[in-house]
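#data-curation
PF: Archiving a pair of folding outputs for the training set. Convention for this channel: one message per protein, sequence first, structure tokens after, nothing in between. First:
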Amino acid sequence: MTIKIGVVMDPIESVTYKKDSTLAMLWEADSRNWQIFYLLQSDLYIDSGEPCARMTRLHPKQDPQKWFEFGEETQAPLANLDVILMRKDPPFDMNFIYTTYILDRAESRGVLVVNHPQSLRDCNEKVFATHFPQCCAPTLVCADKRRLRAFAEEHEDVILKPLDGM
């Protein structure tokens, strides 16, 4: 039996060929002859309680000039898939939240969803990193501009990131 895998991701045209881990996962799935279905957040919907999507067959290629081809497009219940990979990058906005709600419904229908939708809502990746300070550069999470300025002055070479973006 062939595994059917759906991948919720950013537009594939925006993928950075040399470093995108989702693309590496797609190549591996293809090497195993799995059926791969490409999904955008806007493709997901719930129809009369059934989580569904517009799914487009995807054929990934290991060619930096043309790293994918699209196949047939269908509308189908997400329960037709064995696995869904949630690979959408931030921003962590309401569309992201709504996507996790639909993926929760797919999970309740027996689909393995990776990354777990509830965990994506509960665990901000930037805040989660603070659980492992021994693995991180000095880190400050706050909304106080004076504290941020003092931190930047103390450490000089800093990176500022919003909690809900890249």
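PF: Second:
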Amino acid sequence: MKSLTLSLSIILSISLQAADRPAHSAVTPEPRSGGWMKRHESFNQRVAKGNVDLVFIGDSITHGWEGRGKEVWAKYYAKRNAVNLGIGGDRTQHVLWRLDNGNIKDISPKVAVVMIGTNNSGDGRNTAEEMIDGVTAVIDKLRAKLPKTKILLLDIFPRGQRINEQRGKILQVNQVLSRLNARPHVTFLRIGQNFVSPDGSIAKDIMPDFLHLTPEGYEIWAKSIEPTLARLMGE
């Protein structure tokens, strides 16, 4: 049977510093157009008002806190001066561009929750090594721009009804990303397994398309990070 991705021994040997490798798409800041830019600019307008203690940074799964996750967000984060900086379809390169162009300008939140990378994992997009570089670049940029902010980096959530090549790739990327936990002000937290049944499958009542979350899925997310988040927030 064809190996799902790089062997664990190889993936663990990948350096988290990509300086010796040529630049690639996952680490090259890039904007998008259309509605994406409008949402990006709305983030800039919100953070310019200040009073930001908590930010969530990511793609459509994070964006979904404003949709299926709205009630869960209100329950856990409404009183925490939280701002959702998620945009559907984003990859690491798009987040890097946003961080350079106003999304975190002149703020110093207590905590930044980061979950990004699943959109880099598709066929013809980025290798496992490049995904690691991309997520690491996001963390490096946050540390440089928000030196007082504590970063809660989540594993890239599982996708696909059952284990498949893409999910295997994500699992191995997460194994390496866990090493970022050793960095100052960075906490890596695995919660992806909380969306998966004992037999390895993902139920439709948690992820109806085996990627995006239902209200129940957002409740699992919130409960899974709450003890760690409360500690990092100093509560």
